[in-house]
Fold:
Amino acid sequence: MLADKLNSLIVYLFNREILILSLISICYMAVFFEAVFLHRDILSVHGINLQPLRSHIEAWTQYSFQAWHHIILNILLFVPTGMLLPLWKRNISIVRFGLLASSITAGIELTQLTLSIGIFDIDDVINNLFGAFVGFYIVKFILLLRKRSPSNKTLFVYSLPLILSAVFMLAVTLPYFSRELGNLNNSIYGGADMSHALVTLEKDFSKNRREYIVYIAKSITKEQSKQMAAEFFSKVGAKIIETAPLQESIQYKSKDKIFRIRYNDSTYRYIDGTQFDEGKVAIKNADEHTIKASLLSFGIEIPDNAVFKNDSDGIYTFQVEKQESSTVYGSITCRFYNDNTLKEIDNQLVDLQPHKKYTVISQYEAAKKITDGRFHNIYGEIHKIRIKNIDIVYELDTKGFYQPVYRCFVDLNGIATVIKIPAIPS
Structure:
């Protein structure tokens, strides 16, 4: 009897289909374990997020590769799980599959929380389950097609989740790509509960709507960025020896220097690693003329309307506010050292090109949005807000346009802060 059972087990294990499935499962589990547990930094803090779809709303608002990367990766990571489970157990029910997949992803989140290598995020559970069910229905649909005469109704039932997934992806992407302007980082998600908050206005704000120009920044290609980096390095006797493409930018390295540039607006950051050499000290009292001359040696000209600021810590800033007659906007920050060289330059000065005029909401309407709690709330429970002043600034959206944004200066629970409200009606 025992010999028969052992013989059956050996036959089962060396079955060609089982062997292939076992190898695939082992490879997948190795990749899965590395991605979930090993490919992470040990965190000093951990926490819990039980607010469903929070990361999805934030990703929609930011609409960048980085924002969607985590969501898509969590979905794709569990698609093989959903495919392998019904292959190992062909008659598994949808309920048992759901319970098993839920247990796996919840267990992973709890383990990450316990080991301080991540947080327990309900959105991760949602994404994992979504991916698992996609994989489950892909396999079930394929197995169904292998049958001789599956009914149209059965085919439709098993293909419906895949169809709904495709419809959902189109519903998420089409509205974004069909409109002209992108999303702003201060777009509303979450909002604020203002039902018990006292809101006061320090003055009467204008109810008149105005037209403002939307600008588009000068973008740059990969080839242009490389030429720009080479020219920049040549001014300090360096050459490019390494290139590292990033999510929305590219980084070039020489022996001890780094030049990182963004594609969509050509802003860049330069770091000279020799600042850490022995004897190198940041100068804290350089004057405006000295800093301008040093920037000019890199080919950087400062606009006449730039405001110079020395924070007395070796960091110098030129700030350029957007004016209707000017096409340069932003700031440039740098560090000046005792060998009379700049070893850090963060150039956020943007060369703007007029795109199109848009009618913006009035100052009064912007204040009303605060009163109604229609703003990005990062402040927690709000008891009182006093709106003191409102002006217009420009901010980069997710499609490379610089949009007008209302900057509202407020006292929030007795603390001075700034709330930004998109000026162009959605």
Summary: The mean pLDDT is 86. The CA atoms of residues 75 and 127 lie 5 Å apart.
